[in-house]
Amino acid sequence: MAAVRDRRHLNLRLPLPEPSQRRPRFPLLLPPSTVTNTITISTADAIAPNDIEKLNVLGHGNGGTVYKVRHKRTNAIYALKVVHSDSDPITRRQIRREMDILRQTDSPHVVQCHGFFEKPSGDVSIVMEYMDLGTLDTLLKNNGTFSEPKLASVARQVLNGLSYLHAHQIMHRDIKPSNLLVNSNMEIKIGDFGVSKIMRRTLDACNSYVGTCAYMSPERFDPESYGGNYDGYAGDIWSLGVTLFELYVGYFPLLPSGQRPDWATLMCSICFGDPPSLPEGASAEFRSFIESCLKKESSERWSAAQLLTHPFLKG
């Protein structure tokens, strides 16, 4: 901790970044301040919110609720993410940002969006594909740790999604087990874009203090000490490395098993501690892959495209 005290004082405030400019993907999309009672499902079909039947609650959090719903006319099953009218402004701003991102994405490795609507009550909703096994966090809690072959499949799919997003100048900034969705075919899709960012010009326009701090890369806490400008693409790779490590050992790897994390402890561990080492029994290929993700210097981390060629995935 003496080393921590000797370092320069970090700005620990967490300001919210500016929302990205909108580039509509769905037809006749209304401005966010406009109230509408129509969901855009496709260019040829639209349904009213009353045509959706709520079946059960899938989860709560951040001022909203996710439901499993059925389209009464077609019997199609969707997930409906609702941010309620009494949610705080930051949460409502985040769902606007998520809508911006989902309008522009079209990848089998990113959760598919089927439309948006805003009710007169002020509730804002996103209709998304339903992933019936929940998240990787759910699988870890219910089924236990992942084998290396399963992790290779997870990594390959997530990296394909990140490669697509990064090629389109989108940084996710919150990769973690609970934001990686799974269906019964063991397809993994990236979800929850509430703190994501579309880069328009330069990377240094991005504020780094967003997302879940446990999965933040060192340069997100202290960009000046780790290469100057914050590289959000490399930050996504660090988060993926921590995620895969956690799925392998069954606990968050940057702290001792069972330790309850807090912001300051996490910051010290991530910024000033050594990257974690896999336990004995991990293959050399997996060790190399994790090390390529968890380089402290962001410029030394492999990109998503590079990691897709790593021997761990080929094996």
SSE-based structural type = alpha+beta
Q: What is the strand content?
A: 15-25%
Q: Could you name the CATH topology of the largest domain? A: Transferase(Phosphotransferase), domain 1
What is the helix/strand order?
A: HEEEEEHEEEHHEEEEHHHHHH
Q: What count of helical segments does DSSP give?
A: 10
Tell me, what is the CATH class of the largest domain?
Answer: Mainly Alpha
Helix proportion:
25-40%
Number of domains: 2
- What is the tally of beta strands? 12
| Overall pLDDT metric | 79
**Alpha-carbon Rg, integer:** 20 Å
Name the assembly state.
single chain
Silhouette:
globular
Question: Which CATH architecture of the largest domain is right?
Answer: Orthogonal Bundle
Instruction: Return residue spans where pLDDT drops below 50 for at least 5 consecutive residues.
Output: 1-44, 200-210
Could you give the distance between the termini?
41 Å
Largest sheet: 5 strands, antiparallel
How is the largest sheet built, in terms of strand order?
3-4-5-7-6
How would you name the CATH homologous superfamily of the largest domain? Transferase(Phosphotransferase) domain 1
Catalytic activity: L-threonyl-[protein] + ATP = O-phospho-L-threonyl-[protein] + ADP + H(+); L-seryl-[protein] + ATP = O-phospho-L-seryl-[protein] + ADP + H(+); L-tyrosyl-[protein] + ATP = O-phospho-L-tyrosyl-[protein] + ADP + H(+)
GO molecular function: ATP binding; MAP kinase kinase activity; protein serine/threonine kinase activity
Keywords: ATP-binding, Kinase, Nucleotide-binding, Phosphoprotein, Serine/threonine-protein kinase, Transferase
Organism: Lupinus angustifolius (Narrow-leaved blue lupine)
